[in-house]
Structures are given as C-alpha cells and as structure tokens.
Amino acid sequence: MPQTEKETILTPEGLKQLEEKLEQYKAVYRREVAERIRQAKEFGDISENSEYEDAKLEQAFVEGQILSLEKMIRNAKILDEASIHTDVVSVGTTVKVKDQESGEVCEYTIVGSAECDPKRGRISNESPVGAGLLGQNKGKIATIKTPGGTVKYKIMEIKR
C-alpha cells in the first residue's frame, strides 16, 4: 500500500525561501561537490582516498537535501492570508500569550514545520506549544504539556 506524502503547510514567503534553497543546492552545492569529487579522483587510488570518501558522503547529503526540498515543494499547501481568521489560533496567526506562572509575555507565529524558527518566534503547528495553542480563543487559558513540564498560557491577542 503506497504511503501518502505529508502535506507541507507554507506561507507564500516560506515557499519562496524553499525554492531559493533548492536552487542553491542544485546550482551551487551540487557543482561544488562534483568538483571536489573530480579533484579527489586526481589523487589516484580512490579506494584509500579520504578526500574522495568525504566528497561522496557530502554528495549523498546534498542529493538527499534536494529530494527532501523537492518533496516539500511538491506537497506544499500555501496559506491564503485572506482565509486566516483571528477568532481562534490557527496556522498563520500570531498569538500573544502570557505565562500564568512567570507572568512572561511571549509572541509566537504558528507556521508549518518547514518554516519554524523558534529564535524568531516562529513555532511549528506540530510542536507541543504550537499544537497546544491551535484552536484556542482570546482570553482562554491553554494548558500545554511540554518536555520541560506543563505550562499554562493565557491567550492575550490573536492577529495575522
């Protein structure tokens, strides 16, 4: 039975970034690795050539990245900003929350896993916090189990 491919939820910006990354892997990294392999072959016997082995491993990594990016792009579901409502937390919304224990206020943008960047406040809809916030309304308290313990966030604001 064929396994269905996972849908990749992306913003239009996220799709553009993935396409640019794919182009960089195809046009730059692929060529660089091929050149490293060519140079390593010039060193002679490839059976005991660590430069050749390293380059072949890097080539496998680059090709794997290309396949992965192509699959994500092929299975992309682009978010239509006009269809994102701010009455509940959903993928594409930015939510301001207040930690009920520490009083700390944080702002998170809920995105698909391909676009997550926690350092920039972009969390995946599949992460414990992202999944725990989905479907919540302004004013509600979300109790979320995380690897570090349970946290309670009050939903302060939901926006696009």
What does this structure look like?
This protein is an alpha/beta fold and 160 residues long. It has two domains: 71 residues, Transcription elongation factor, GreA/GreB, N-terminal domain (Helix Hairpins, Orthogonal Bundle), CATH 1.10.287.180; 79 residues, Transcription elongation factor, GreA/GreB, C-terminal domain (Chitinase A, domain 3). Helices cover 38% and strands 24% of the residues. The chain has three helices and seven strands; from the N terminus they run E-H-H-E-E-E-E-H-E-E. It is elongated, with a radius of gyration of 21 Å.
Order of helices and strands: EHHEEEEHEE
Give the quaternary arrangement of the chains: single chain
| Total discrete domains | 2
Q: Any idea of the CATH class of the largest domain?
A: Alpha Beta
Q: Tell me about the biggest sheet?
A: 5 strands, mixed
CATH superfamily of the largest domain: Transcription elongation factor, GreA/GreB, C-terminal domain
Strand order of the largest sheet: 5-4-3-7-6
On the 0 to 100 scale, the average pLDDT is 91
Instruction: Report the portion of residues in β strands.
Output: 15-25%
Helix-residue proportion: 25-40%
Question: Which SSEs are present, and which pair or pack?
Answer:
Layout: E1 8-10, H1 12-41, H2 50-74, E2 76-78, E3 94-99, E4 105-111, E5 122-124, H3 128-133, E6 141-146, E7 149-159
Parallel strand pairs: 1-2, 4-5
Antiparallel strand pairs: 3-4, 3-7, 6-7
Helix pairs in contact: 1-2
Distinctive features:
160 residues, alpha/beta, Helix Hairpins, Chitinase A, domain 3
